[in-house]
Amino acid sequence: MLDPKYVVAHAEAVKQNCVNRNVGADVVADVDAIVALDSDRKAIQTQVEEIRRRQNEVAQATGKEKDPGKRSELVAEGKRLKEEVVAVDERLRTLEVEMKQRLSQLPNLTHPDAPTGQTEDANKVIKTWGTPRVFDFPTKDHVELGKALDIIDFEGGGKVSGQGFYFLKNDGALLDLALQQYAIHRLVKEGFRPVITPDLARNSILEGIGFQPRGPETQVYSVENTDLSLIGTAEITLGGLHADEVLEAEQLPLKYAGLSHCFRTEAGAGGRASKGLYRVHQFTKVEMFAYTEGTLEASGAMHQDLLRIEEEIFQGLGLPYQVLDICSGDLGGPAYRKFDIEAWMPGRGEAGEYGEVTSTSDCTDFQARRLNIRYKPAGQKGTKFVHTLNGTAVALSRALLAVLENYQEADGTVLVPEVLRPFMGKDRITRI
RNA sequence: GGAGAGGUGGCUGAGUGGUCGAAAGCGACGGUUUGCUAAACCGUUGUACGUGUCACAGCGUACCGGGGGUUCGAAUCCCCCCCUCUCCGCCA
């Protein structure tokens, strides 16, 4: 959520931002509505407070008044005021709800250096690392490898849970665990606190992070007869962890390495053909989440750091990748800036393509405002909203996919990347 | 899932209808004293919004787990929900 004061004071800039963000004309119109609503709201709030002030005055006077006649006069006035405040207060609340509702439609502001554009075509490649391997034998994609090596079972997943689910078996299970271990160990060295989070969260937390728990657009599964949803990412639980808290400035930055399962309905993604592990309903992910002081300098620096760590993780795995600076229209609601890493996937497309494996976002105070996460800046009075950032360390499924396809050998086995061997206990994946 | 107890300011803890944004203690901060440290003493010590100011101050409103209700008036009474603790049941 944006700061309502900022929206009112910079309505034109906010509108332009909405256009750049590719959000629909009705949302742009919301900005004007918010400006109008806000001045009404202020006027009515003043009225309500004035009545309340008089109510308090009367109530106190009533308590002190000994004379029965005067006392009943005061009681009568109190009753009158009570009736009076009801209607005005209800109007105030209506306005507040409407304002909040419209405010919550607005996307975050955008980093001035982020490319401006409406679709993902405007995303900019800002770095390429490594060279895709040239194979001197016909390659398989990870689905074929998974089947041949008996390490990924889509048929079993389909039978038990439906399309988009799978079993990881044998060395596939070990490889998944090894990648988790590798990422967590790496992050602990970087000063992150390792955390295993709940896989379900309250809908209010989902909303605070910027997810829509309900409706046709929803990306998450909700649990019937509860206000819980299966999380789409540990960003939800790690961001919610400090909801409604005031942190001490010395605690910041606060860095978590969260391990969770992630569940996604992938509603609306049906048309986008993607086989195998690339788009699934459940996967495991090691997620970085950071809280910083509420300045663009602090979160901007942290954002670069998260990207650096993501890159080093993939460099460590020896997987070629490119880094994308995501354009305004493709940023999603909460992000102020976002970088994606796309790793080389030999089995994708005709002769291999880069495919998204991580994503890191600087959400500035957008999530913190809705989740009410603040801190006390040193040497200042009052509190400020923190900035929140998230980044994928390793999303299993996709990282697993990339390892299998890049490390396959002519004999159908798969070499285990050096860094994973201590966790795998072997250097080659073979059919058991 | 069942039975009971409880949720008050940074912490401990008082407060069962009015003078309570809330006693007291601790902690923290500022000051006095002191060769230094300690102790002692004095003072300050929540947040948000509004109003006001160059900026303070001041003033107003709200907040005693969350929401609703009773009342002229609620931390205090009633209802619902959430959470914590104890015991029982069940269970990895």
Shape field: elongated
Please report the distance between the alpha carbons of the first and last residues. Answer: 52 Å
Counting helices, strands and paired strands, the structural category is alpha+beta
> H/E series, N to C?
HHHHEHEHEHEEHEHEEEHEEEHEEEHEHE
Roughly what percent helix?
40-55%
Notes on the protein architecture:
The chain is α+β, with helices and mostly antiparallel strands. It folds into 2 domains: 4-103, Helix Hairpins (Orthogonal Bundle), CATH 1.10.287; 120-429, 2-Layer Sandwich (BirA Bifunctional Protein, domain 2), CATH 3.30.930. The protein contains 13 helices and 17 strands. It has helices at residues 4-9, 11-20, 25-64, 68-103, 142-148, 154-160, 171-189, 203-209, 234-240, 296-317, 366-371, 398-406, 421-424; strands spanning 124-129, 152-153, 167-168, 193-196, 200-202, 228-230, 246-248, 254-263, 282-292, 321-325, 337-345, 353-362, 374-376, 384-385, 387-395, 414-415, 428-429. The strands form 5 sheets. Strands 1-10-11-12-15-9-8-4 form an 8-stranded mixed β-sheet. Strands 7-13-14 form a 3-stranded mixed β-sheet, with no helix packed on it. Strands 2-3 form a two-stranded antiparallel sheet. Helix 2 (11-20) packs across helix 3 and helix 3 (25-64) packs antiparallel against helix 4 (68-103). The model has no long low-confidence stretch (mean pLDDT 91). The structure holds one RNA strand of 92 nucleotides.
